[in-house]
C-alpha cells in the first residue's frame, strides 16, 4: 500500500535539488576540460564544453524555475537521490558519447552509469585510442560515484541544511562518522584525498620502474587510483591490469582495493590510533574469514582443474581475481572469456559468491556487505543457542562494530531484507541473460557483477549484446548502488503521482 | 641437374623429418583467448597494432598488440624494442606488427597470463600521427550550448535577487 501523497510542490522541491546535482556535475567537468587543454587535445575541448553547458543549463534552469527554501522530507530526499544518479549518468554520458567511441548514446549512458555506480563494466570501443581527457573523465566519475554523488553535493554545495541527512541515507550510507552529515561527508573526502596522494605516488613509482615516462606514470597512477580506491574497475586500457605486466602494480592495487573496501568509520578509528578495532571489528573479521575460505575453495578447484601450470601462477591469478571480486573493483589480470574456458565451474561459483558479498558498510563497495553478513550469522547463532538453552533463559548476542552492540531484531530484519533484494536482483538478471541465450552460469556471473557493482566480466558485456540486457544491467547497477530503498520510494512516488494521490 | 634435384630433396626431407612446433598460421586475438587450449605451446602468427607504452625488463620487453578486438601481450627480446617507433594512443596509430612466436595459455614464466613469446617481429605497416580536426558542428553546438547556459545562470541570478 502506498501512503505517499505526491503533489506538484513535491516536484518543485525535488527539481530544485536535482538542479544542484546537475551544477555539481558541471563543476566536475571542468577538470577533464582542463586536462584537454593541458594535453593539447583541442578537438576534445568542445566535447566537454558541450557537456558542461548542458549540465549548467539544466542545473540553473531547475534552480531558477523551482527555487524554494523548503526542506526535504524523507520521501523527497529519497526521490532526489534516486533521480540524481539517473541525471548524473545522463549528463556524464554526453562528453563520452561525443568522443566517438560508443555505438550509440545508450552505450555511453551505460558506461557513465557503470562509472558513477563504481561497477566497471564497459561498452567503450577502441579504448586504447581514447583521449586522456575522456579517460580522466571516466575515472573521475568513478571517484565521484564512489564517494557518492550526493555526498559530493553535500560537501560543497550545502551549508547546514537539515535535509542533507535524508540525502545521505538515501545514498546507501546508513552510518555516520560524525553526528553531523556535512562533517561526515567532508571526512569521507579528506580520507579519500589523503589516500589519493599516497596511492598515486606508489603507482607512479611502479610506472617509472616499468620504464614509463614520468608524465605517463602519473597519468596512469591517477586513473588507476581513482578506480581502485573507489572499487570501480575502469582502466585507461582495454587489457585492464594485464597491460602493465607488473607484479608491483598488482600488489599496490590489491592494497588500494582493500583500503577502498573498508568502512570509512573504521578508517576514522584507525586514523585516531584505535588499532585494536582491526582485530575486533565484525566487518574485518567477516571479510578476513570470507577471503581466506573462498580463496581456499578457488585454489583447490583451480588446482584440480589444472588451470595454471604452477602454484605461483595459481596464487597470483586466483588471489588477484578474488580480491578484485570481493572488494567489488573488477580489475582483471585475465581476459573475460578465460573465466568460462579456463576456470572450473566451482571456482566461478566461488567468485560469484565473493562478488555478491562486497566490503564494508559506508565504504565504496557494493553488494550485500560484511556487516549484514556478520549480523545474519550472529542471528543464526542466537537462534541455535535459543534452541539449545533451557526455555526460561534469555539469549543475548553481541557484536562489535566500532563499539559493542546488542543484536537487535530490527538490525537483523533490515540486513535480511537487503540481502533478499540482492538475491532477487542477481537472479532476475541471470534469468534475463539466460532468456536471451547465454548459459545460466555466465549470465549469473555477469548479473551479480552488475548488481553488486563489481565489474568483472566473463565476456557477455560488449557493445553487441542485446538492448534488453544493456537496460537490465543499467537498472541493476543503479538499484544495487543505492541498495534499493531510494529506488522503491521513487517507484512508489511515481505510482502515487500517476494516481493523483 | 641431378645434383640440384638431390639438394632440394635433402632440404625437403630435413624440413619434413625435423621435430618442430606446429605453426598454426595467422590467428586472431579472439581465437587465442577463446580457444587457448588448442593453441597452447604452439608456434603461431599474430598481427596487430602496437599500443600503449613498452614495458621494459632486463633483456626483454613487453608490447601489447591490438588486432581490433583485443590486445595480446607479446614478450620480445630487447633487440626488437627499438624497431617499434609508433605505439597506438590518442595521438598515434601504432606500427602494425606481425609476430611469430610461441603462444602460452597460462605462461609459467609470467604469472599465468596469456602471452606470446616472440621469435620474429616484422613491421607490416609503420604507424603515423593521427590528426584530430576540430569538427565545425561541435564548435557551433558549443557556442549555442554556452549561450543557453549563460541564459540559465542569468535567469537563476535574477530569480535569486
Order of helices and strands of chain B: HEHHEEEHEEEEH
Uncertain segments of chain B: 11-22
CATH architecture of the domain at 21-129 in chain B: Beta Barrel
- At the first level of CATH, the class of the domain at 21-129 in chain B is Mainly Beta
Could you give me the name of the CATH homologous superfamily of the domain at 21-129 in chain B?
Answer: Nucleic acid-binding proteins
Quote the distance from N terminus to C terminus of chain A: 12 Å
**Major sheet of chain A:** 2 strands, antiparallel
Order of helices and strands of chain A: HHHHHHHHHHHHHHHHHEEHHHH
Q: Cα-atom Rg of chain B, whole angstroms? A: 26 Å
* Largest Cβ-defined interface: A-B, 56 and 49 residues
Structure annotation, total helices of chain B: 5
Strand neighbour order, sheet with most strands of chain B: 2-3-4-7-6
| Total helical elements of chain A | 21
What report would you give on this structure?
The complex is a heterodimer of chains A (501) and B (161). Chain A has a domain at 1-174. Chain A is built from 21 helices and 2 strands. Chain A has helices at 8-38, 42-65, 74-98, 105-116, 132-147, 149-157, 164-170, 181-209, 214-229, 247-260, 264-271, 277-280, 282-305, 311-326, 336-341, 345-357, 370-388, 409-435, 440-451, 467-482, 485-499, and strands at 398-401, 403-406. In chain A, strands 1-2 form a two-stranded antiparallel sheet. In chain A, a hairpin with a 1-residue loop joins β1 (398-401) and β2 (403-406). Chain A starts with 7 loop residues before the first helix and ends with a helix. The mean pLDDT of chain A is 91. Chain B has 5 helices and 8 strands; from the N terminus they run αβααβββαββββα. In chain B, a hairpin with a 3-residue loop joins β2 (43-56) and β3. Classes of the chains: A mainly alpha (501), B alpha+beta (161). Chains A and B meet through α2, α14 and α15 of A and β2, β3 and α5 of B.
